[in-house]
Amino acid sequence: MSEDLKRVENLLRQQAAIASFGSFALRQTDLMTVLNEAARVCAAGLDVPFCKICRYRTETNDLLIVSGYGWDEGVVGHIISRADESSPQGSAFITGLPAICDDLRNETKFILPPFYGEHGIISTIDVNIKGAGKPYGVLEIDSDVQRNFDQHDINFLTGFANVLAEAVATSERVALLQVTIEQMKSVVDEKDRLLGQKKVLAEELQHRVRNNLQLVYGMLNRQLEQTADEPGQRGIKAISRRVSTLAQVYEHLIGTEMTRTTDFGGYVTALCRSLATFQSSPGDHVTLTCDSDAITLDLDVVTALGIIVAELVTNSYDHAFPDGKGAINVSVRKNGDGDGLSTMTISDDGTGFVPGNENKRHGVGLVRRLVEQIGAKLTLGSGIGTAWTVSFPEQPASAS
After folding, report:
1. Residues spanned by CATH 3.30.450.40 within the chain?
2. According to CATH, what is the number of the domain 3-166?
3. What is the end-to-end Cα distance of the chain in Å, rounded?
4. CA-to-CA distance for 251 and 173, rounded, in angstroms?
5. 3-class DSSP state for residue 151?
């Protein structure tokens, strides 16, 4: 086989490795599983026996080996390097440029930990794993035979590190979401506990709930400021909208009796005013109107319907008006047929929605799950723009 043909086959194999790892990483939520697979695939992609991933630690200003492939016991999770130019990985971290050592035996500017010699390491490449602020750390491959790495090898390792950086960012966003969910569960548990106590605890309940929601909302905003990539910002904004919607439910309960029910009509009207303010930006000419009958519903149903309104209204703002002009309407009506169902319609006069394109209209999957959760029915109307109709069961007030 000619060298050119061998090189082409090697490049195709490396490209396939990056694509396969990217698909794997997007399906995983455990960061260590992602890092361990990254080390294995990266070593195989460059046909070397060793690979390691170092995470930067701000508190100690160093790089800890958190995952690796091929190393003896006692390396991963234990060995650290200074985050400066005294080591190959420190040099890559500080400069942001690949650090390439074809022969460490002739290298004099680096101070190498003993495990390099113990494993017979001769050739290395280090590249940055990017992050929102400082890099997450460094990806390094190591060989115990001398290798003359070329630009194709560097390109593969750099491309792989970029995919790994996105996987790390995704894992961090999932971790943030899990923390947020636990915070919200804690809020709900606290609410349920206090609901069983005397009416005089209402003020304390409202104070605690609002403070917890503000804490979660503030944490999300700080994360949003630190997240540079658009998919990450979109995901955090979606979580933030849901927290804000839940906060609207509790704000609507201020000054009311300690019950499990509230007026959905008044709540959804206030929610739409808040959404119009939250979504508006200079140059936009999109109007949001709301017209609702007074309907008393269980608090959990109000919460689910509120999130549905927030998702679909935001969906219209984000996707329906490429020219920044249009109208959105939220309408809630009691059904006079005596079948116990009320109807909520969220419509716009924008570009319309193509069924099956949920990946282009974020939040629709969540809407469908919430509709199913409360025993409702979701339909998509035809004609100009988009019209979602939710038929949901009425649950009359029963003071507790």
Report:
1. 3-166
2. 3.30.450.40
3. 81
4. 28
5. helix
Q: Is 333 left (phi over 0), alpha (psi -120 to 50) or beta?
A: beta
Reduced to 3 states (helix: H, G, I; strand: E, B; else coil), residue 343 is strand
Please report where in the chains the tokens 């070329």 appear, as a residue. Answer: 150
For 83, the enclosing helix (H) or strand (E) is none
CA 172 to chain centroid: 8
Could you say which architecture CATH assigns to the domain 196-393?
A: 2-Layer Sandwich (3.30)
CA distance 152 to 98: 13
Tokens of 394: 């009425």
Domain with CATH 3.30.565.10 in the chain: 196-393
Exposed/middle/buried for 281, CB within 10 Å: 0-12, 13-18, 19+? exposed
Mean pLDDT per block of 10 residues along the chain (400 residues) reads 69 80 80 90 91 93 93 92 89 91 87 89 92 84 91 89 85 78 80 63 60 72 72 69 66 57 87 75 77 88 87 84 89 79 92 64 77 92 86 62
Cα distance between residue 27 and residue 33, in whole Å: 11
The residue whose two tokens read 């002009």 is 325
Is 330 in contact with 292 (CB distance < 8 Å)?
yes
Yes or no: say if 268 and 281 are a contact pair by the CB < 8 Å rule. no
Q: pTM score, two decimals?
A: 0.47
What DSSP character marks residue 286?
E
CA distance 361 to 365: 9
Strand, helix or coil for residue 102:
coil
46 neighbors 141 (Cβ within 8 angstroms): yes
User: Alpha helix locations (H) across the chain?
Assistant: 3-26, 31-45, 88-95, 114-118, 151-195, 202-226, 230-253, 264-279, 299-319, 364-373
Angle at 146 between CA 129 and CA 161, to 5 degrees: 10
